[in-house]
Amino acid sequence: MNQSNMDDSELMSVLERIKLGDIPSYAYIISRFQKRIFLYCYYLLKSHEEAEDAAQDIFIKGLENITRFSYNVSFSAWLYTIARNHCTDLLKIRSKRYKSLMQYEINNDYKMENEYTDLIHDLLDNLNMEERQILLLRSLEEYSYDEIASIMDIKPTTIRKKYERIRKKLIQQKIEGGKIYEHSYKTGG
């Protein structure tokens, strides 16, 4: 049995124990998904503190609703659906307080350990919320189109088409950005 199958069977066993009232077993769920859920929230919310709070809220909602989980979808897809809905709600609340989502600044005290962070943020800033979610779920989390469709409640063929458009859009932005960079470098401004 490979590691992935063993992890999946262990996850199912833990889920059954939690459903039967073994709440301390939920620590396994948190440890297994915490980093991935945090990063998903961080890229959507663009705030370290909000992403931390959101991840905690998502795990609480997951525990409160664990009896509603059915095996029609993977547990991670179910958890990401909760995360997507929660982040969408937070963005709606934020947009009522602020006129533009893009005015919100990332906490400067927090630096991700990835040298491409600025590039990623620049590219994500040019995508709408739905495009960001599709890109993150497909590229970062490596979900199938069917799983993304389940999470976002959109047809798999629509997800596939949108993902291809997003890729083309990002490639075009990179090409245009490269030309702008080359022009600035050559002309000194």
Automatic annotation (TrEMBL):
GO molecular function: DNA binding; sigma factor activity
Domain RNA polymerase sigma-70 region residue range list: 30-93
Keyword annotations of the record: DNA-binding, Sigma factor, Transcription, Transcription regulation
Annotated Pfam families: Sigma70_r2, Sigma70_r4_2
Keyword DNA-binding in annotation: yes
RNA polymerase sigma factor 70 region 4 type domain mapped to chain residues: 119-170
Keyword DNA-binding: yes
GO annotation terms (biological process): DNA-templated transcription initiation
Domain of life according to the entry: Bacteria
Family: Belongs to the sigma-70 factor family. ECF subfamily.
Protein's name according to its UniProt entry: RNA polymerase sigma-70 factor, ECF subfamily
Organism the protein comes from: Paenibacillus uliginis N3/975
